[in-house]
Specification:
about 25% strand, five-stranded antiparallel beta sheet, about 45% helix, about 575 residues, alpha/beta
């Protein structure tokens, strides 16, 4: 201890303080107390100390690192408090080096993974948070003033081992832990050998299970992260020899590199997690760089998925109809119903933006039932409003999941009865891959629908299984040629004979089986003439009309239903 006067000079000091500072008590008298324990080392501590000396503050305490004359360092807890009945203050110093060392050991245990000895999740996020906070300055100014400042960028390699669970399940957790420790060693070597590493190098951490992260502070760009990810991938793929057990594993790595300014911990980790998922989905054993455009598409897809079911109930969907035209006389024979989603945020969306999502989450059943009912009701309305014209059939697309997840036959029968539409004016379209692979329940459903009088069409014919023997046993009445065959007819100056032979063969085959043929994507009069010559029955495409509102179809019916 030492008694200090209001001017900050030592009046008296005991032998214990003198021993702590490596001197004698007499030599401490009249010395500046703040200099003995470095109280002027930072503005906040110096201000607090001065406030106690002036009597404006009752006491303050701080921790300082002191240098002993023999060269060793020690940690001291410094307390400054007024002496009762006087103007002096009492300076007390306690050696807390042992306590600090114990705290450091406990913190190390708390912040490191016991299996791999790597920093754990807690320390990783503490370091990441600090890195983002400290990198918020302008990199240009840093380089301009110091020449060796940071880049203001941050990078992250987020990886997990492919098939690690199988190692634990078959060889046991002891072997699994040895593998994790061996992987940690190789990751650390890769981080240490990165020529672009600055300062103390990259932080390699185990985030849990078989997930690891390499944090690159002041990264130099995506090339650096790509090089590091490639090195990590190669290192992990080298076989491991674990006490005579030889193992081969791979890793999937998500790579993110960006400006630190404006980046949050949650934002960076979400991007890394998404990119790791991409690497897994793309085939594993690879690294993938974060792609903002792909992520925007994923976010849009997620937003659509979460709002699709309620959108049917809110009436956000509408149907447009594209004419199916007789090739011989140019009259409209029927229409294909095409659903559009008028999304309040993303605007008008075509089926390819949401039908796949609906099939994945099962909402296609609810949506498909609405499309079927709306299309049949509209076809019946045209029939009633134009009794003297030949009625148009309506063609509705059906996903194979509608057959499996609902009673399609009952739905169709109920809707036909409800709307009053004759069964022969309804055509259901299924893709070739769905129909050709049908067996059991789907085939029974198709047969029941055909027996009811509903026409069954195979959409995109020629691009799927093309099991011609099976085709003869299906209750199909229409083949719709995929547009890729029709587009081959566009070059009228230099036609490809093979395209015409293929289409002619398919048309002839269909006719021999008693089927009619519809050509999709007819865009020019030349295409239509060649398809007519080959024998296609109906055509569909922009030559005749795009998909239009039901009122436009009514106009076509009124003028005689001839569009070409």
């Amino acid at each position: 201890m030492a008694v200090v006067d209001p001017d900050g000079l030592v009046l008296n000091a005991n032998d214990a303080l003198a021993a702590l500072l490596g001197t004698d008590a007499a030599s401490l008298r009249d010395q500046v107390a703040a200099d003995l324990v470095d109280l002027a080392g930072d503005p906040r501590t110096w201000h607090a100390y001065r406030e106690v000396l002036r009597g404006h503050r009752s006491r303050f305490r701080c921790t300082r690192r002191l240098k002993h004359p023999d060269g060793r360092s020690l940690w001291a807890e410094v307390t400054v408090a007024p002496v009762p009945r006087g103007h002096n203050v009492l300076l007390s110093i306690a050696d807390i080096s042992d306590r600090r060392e114990l705290q450091a050991r406990l913190r190390h245990l708390q912040m490191h993974d016991p299996v791999t000895r790597l920093p754990n999740r807690t320390l990783f996020f503490e370091r990441l948070t600090s890195a983002l906070e400290n990198s918020s300055y302008d990199a240009y100014e840093s380089y301009g003033s110091h020449g060796d400042g940071g880049t203001g960028r941050i990078g992250l390699c987020y990886l997990d081992l492919d098939g690690f669970k199988a190692v634990n399940d078959t060889l046991g957790h002891r072997v699994g832990d040895r593998l994790l420790a061996a992987v940690a060693t190789r990751l650390t070597e890769c981080a240490d050998n990165d020529g672009h590493a600055r300062g103390g190098g990259h932080l390699v951490a185990r985030l849990g299970g078989d997930e690891f992260a390499i944090l690159v502070e002041d990264s130099s760009g995506t090339d650096q992260l790509a090089g590091l990810a490639g090195a990590v991938l190669a290192a992990v793929q080298r076989p491991f020899d674990l006490a005579g057990q030889r193992l081969s594993v791979s890793a999937s790595i998500g790579v993110v590199e960006r400006l630190a300014a404006g980046t949050t911990v949650n934002g960076l980790m979400q991007a890394a997690d998404t990119t790791l998922y991409w690497a897994k989905a793309d085939g594993k054993a690879r690294w993938t760089l974060f792609d903002p455009e792909r992520n925007a598409h994923r976010m849009t897809r997620q937003a659509l998925s979460s709002t699709l079911r309620p959108a049917v109930e809110r009436g956000e969907f509408a149907l447009e109809y594209q004419p199916l035209v007789g090739m011989a006389d140019g009259t409209v024979r029927g229409v294909e119903a095409l659903v559009r989603w008028h999304h309040p945020r993303f605007g008008a969306l075509a089926p390819n933006r949401f039908v796949g999502i609906a099939e994945e989450d099962g909402s296609i059943v609810q949506l498909g039932r609405w499309v079927l009912r709306t299309a049949c009701r509209q076809a019946r309305r045209w029939q009633l409003e134009h009794p003297r014209e030949r009625p148009l059939f309506v063609s509705v697309n059906v996903a194979v999941r509608q057959v499996w997840d609902s009673d399609l036959v009952t739905d169709v029968a109920g809707i036909l009865a409800e709307t009053g539409l004759p069964a022969h004016l309804l055509q259901l379209e299924l893709t070739e891959s769905a129909v050709m692979g049908s067996a059991g329940r789907p085939l029974q459903a198709l047969q029941a629908l055909s027996d009811m009088g509903v026409r069954i069409a195979i959409d995109d014919f020629g691009t799927g299984y093309s099991n011609l023997a099976y085709l003869s046993r299906l209750p199909v009445s229409v083949l719709k040629l995929d547009g890729s065959f029709v587009r081959g007819f566009q070059d009228e100056a230099h036609p490809n004979p093979a395209d015409e032979v293929i289409v002619e063969t398919m048309v002839d085959l269909a006719h021999r089986l008693g089927l009619t043929v519809t050509a999709e994507c007819v865009e020019t009069a030349g295409q239509a003439a060649r398809l007519r010559r080959i024998g296609c029955d109906t055509g569909q495409g922009w030559l005749y009309s795009r998909a239009v509102a039901p009122e436009r179809i009514a106009d076509m019916i009124r003028v005689g239903a001839k569009v070409a």
